[in-house]
């Protein structure tokens, strides 16, 4: 291929690539910048023969480029910078014996990777914290027992009960985490079969009658006579109703009401779980489906919650291509609704 042909190809590559490129000569002046670079570091009136300091204002990058230019015989160098709320990885390469070219600078936007990294770090910190709390109690209580506490039968029994409760909590946390991780990695097999939603809602609500009665809450369900079904995984959908009912009862004070209703409209089966409980402040509503997010951490933990229930609900509804809605007024109550396309 002739030089002209090669240049056309190289130009097309530089124009289209999702990596910024800046070429500097031996005086630290720009010879070329590709569109991606100019998008990240906008320069008015072109870059040609402008000093690097006029193009790049980032102090970390400027210093690195300056040092690099002084010592051009060296090897390439990588740094990370934060510019205008975005993160970039910068790769500097010296060019030896190539006419006027002295340095190539490659710029990659790594903002998304950074975000994922932060989410991962937060996640590990959250899990460790949630496991540490019950574990510390188990350790404390068993040490007290071993130190002589077990000689008293009453104390022994009471402490063992506490230990058992905390161990149950840890087991639940791990179960929830495994469920979430399987849902997120699409490993969970979703059995798709017709599910009678009316029947599912009725049986699940029945299972909560005792819990509601013990707390002085009335629970009622309202279902049309007509049979309606959706295509989905019965066990998973049951888990959605369980998690939503569990919340409705947990976050409703004694004397309150919880009701479940299901109906069909426009080819969608909609299930509403309504409570007259404490409600959720509107600022918190967009966040309650995040893993570990709780409006009132202390209260939720006292009630045995880990903040994973709604994250699981969200994923299950997602794999069923359904919709999820929340309406809530602090002090008045909340309604969580989900809809799934009906099947004949
Ligand atoms: N019906 C509700 N009324 C008021 N607040 C609610 C209701 N449902 C959820 N919340 C708020 O949303 C948060 C997240 O709910 P989620 O079910 O994910 O966690 P949790 O109930 O705290 O713990 P877990 O479900 O893992 O036991 C709760 O901590 C609570 O603050
Ligand atoms: Mg919950």
Please describe the structure with a list of short key phrases separated by commas or semicolons.
344 residues; alpha+beta; Beta-Lactamase; Helix Hairpins; Heat Shock Protein 90; 3 domains; 7-stranded mixed sheet; 5-stranded antiparallel sheet; 11 helices; 12 strands; elongated; binds adenosine-5'-triphosphate; binds magnesium ion
Task: Give an overview of the whole structure.
It is a single chain. This protein has 344 residues and is of the alpha+beta class. It has 3 domains: 3-109, Beta-Lactamase, CATH 3.30.450; 111-188, Signal transduction histidine kinase, dimerisation/phosphotransfer (DHp) domain (Helix Hairpins, Orthogonal Bundle), CATH 1.10.287; 190-344, Heat Shock Protein 90 (2-Layer Sandwich). The protein has helices spanning 3-16, 35-40, 52-55, 59-70, 111-146, 153-184, 197-207, 209-215, 234-250, 297-302, 309-319; strands at residues 20-25, 30-33, 77-83, 86-94, 101-109, 193-196, 218-222, 229-232, 257-265, 268-275, 323-329, 333-343. It has 11 helices and 12 strands. β9 (257-265) and β10 (268-275) form a beta hairpin. The protein binds adenosine-5'-triphosphate (ATP) and magnesium ion. Magnesium ion is lined by residues 243, 246-247, 305, 309.
The pLDDT mean sits at: 90
Q: What structural category characterises the helix and strand content?
A: alpha+beta
Shape estimate:
elongated
Unreliable spans are none
Q: How many H/I helices?
A: 11
For the report, how would you describe the main beta sheet? 7 strands, mixed
Rg (CA only): 30 Å
Helix coverage percent:
40-55%
Q: How is the CATH topology of the largest domain named? A: Heat Shock Protein 90
Superfamily (CATH H level) name of the largest domain: Histidine kinase-like ATPase, C-terminal domain
Number of domains: 3
* Ends distance: 64 Å
List all distinct small molecules, including ions and cofactors, that are bound in this structure.
adenosine-5'-triphosphate, magnesium ion
What is the level 1 CATH name of the largest domain? Alpha Beta
What's the CATH architecture name of the largest domain? Answer: 2-Layer Sandwich
N-to-C series of helices and strands: HEEHHHEEEHHEHHEEHEEHHEE
Tell me what portion of residues adopts beta-strand conformation: 15-25%
Strand tally is 12
